[in-house]
């Protein structure tokens, strides 16, 4: 249990039965009436931002959340199998828990977030900000088609399709941003 005096960015709460994290808060003491706290919370299950107001001194239920390093092993039906990097324990989670899972290849290191109480369950699986992948198919660029930031679609070794600059060819190795699926840079081998 915590009170509104304990609020800080990054505090994990149980809000209406859902795991949430505080992303912004403000203590307000109006000239007339009791003090209160405005809060913006991010729902950890779906990423939505929620707003709420608490009376000053109100008690809230905190939750225990842990981040753990895992390595992607393989796909099994509608699930992905991961291995904890320190204990070698394997865990299977549904594919929809992993955002942009088509950018993930075997051996990829990820970070998982678990709620540990009342029962342990995986909330999210986050890829690193940038992943390095090989281009398996790309249309050849036509000479003269280089006006202002022209892009083309390419297929990566995992089967994902992303937009890249015209100078990227089949066989090149590139970095891709896993948050917005944008081209980062070409990597020298």
Structure description:
This protein has 189 residues and is mostly beta strands. The chain has three domains: 2-60, SH3 type barrels; 65-126, OB fold (Dihydrolipoamide Acetyltransferase, E2P), CATH 2.40.50; 130-187, OB fold (Dihydrolipoamide Acetyltransferase, E2P), CATH 2.40.50.140. The protein is 0% helix and 53% strand. The chain contains no helices and 16 strands. The protein has strands spanning 2-3, 12-15, 18-28, 36-43, 49-55, 59-60, 65-76, 79-84, 90-94, 109-115, 121-126, 130-138, 151-156, 161-165, 173-177, 183-187. The chain has a five-stranded antiparallel sheet with strand order 9-8-7-10-11, with no helix packed on it. A five-stranded antiparallel sheet has the order 14-13-12-15-16, with no helix packed on it. The protein is flat. The N and C termini lie far apart (53 Å).
Quick take:
The protein is mainly β and 189 residues long. It has 3 domains: 2-60, SH3 type barrels; 65-126, OB fold (Dihydrolipoamide Acetyltransferase, E2P) (Beta Barrel), CATH 2.40.50.140; 130-187, OB fold (Dihydrolipoamide Acetyltransferase, E2P) (Beta Barrel), CATH 2.40.50. Helices cover 0% and strands 53% of the residues.
Write the layout of secondary structure elements.
Layout: E1 2-3, E2 12-15, E3 18-28, E4 36-43, E5 49-55, E6 59-60, E7 65-76, E8 79-84, E9 90-94, E10 109-115, E11 121-126, E12 130-138, E13 151-156, E14 161-165, E15 173-177, E16 183-187
Antiparallel strand pairs: 1-6, 2-3, 3-4, 4-5, 7-8, 7-10, 8-9, 10-11, 12-13, 12-15, 13-14, 15-16
């Amino acid at each position: 249990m915590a009170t509104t005096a304990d609020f800080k960015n990054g505090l994990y709460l149980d809000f209406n039965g859902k795991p949430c994290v505080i992303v912004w808060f403000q203590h307000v003491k109006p000239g007339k009436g009791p003090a209160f706290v405005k809060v913006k919370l991010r729902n950890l299950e779906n990423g939505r931002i929620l707003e709420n107001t608490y009376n000053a001194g109100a008690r809230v239920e905190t939750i225990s959340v842990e981040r753990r390093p895992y390595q992607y092993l393989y796909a099994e039906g509608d699930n992905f199998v991961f291995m904890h990097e320190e204990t070698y324990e394997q865990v299977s989670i549904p594919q929809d828990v992993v955002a942009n899972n088509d950018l993930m290849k075997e051996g990829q290191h990820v970070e998982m977030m678990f709620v540990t109480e009342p029962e342990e369950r995986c909330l999210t699986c986050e890829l690193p900000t940038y992943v390095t992948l090989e281009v398996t198919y790309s249309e050849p660029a036509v000479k003269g088609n280089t006006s202002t930031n022209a892009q083309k679609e390419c297929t990566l070794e995992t089967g994902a399709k992303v937009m890249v600059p015209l100078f990227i060819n089949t066989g090149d190795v590139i970095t891709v941003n896993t948050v917005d699926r944008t081209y980062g840079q070409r990597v020298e081998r």
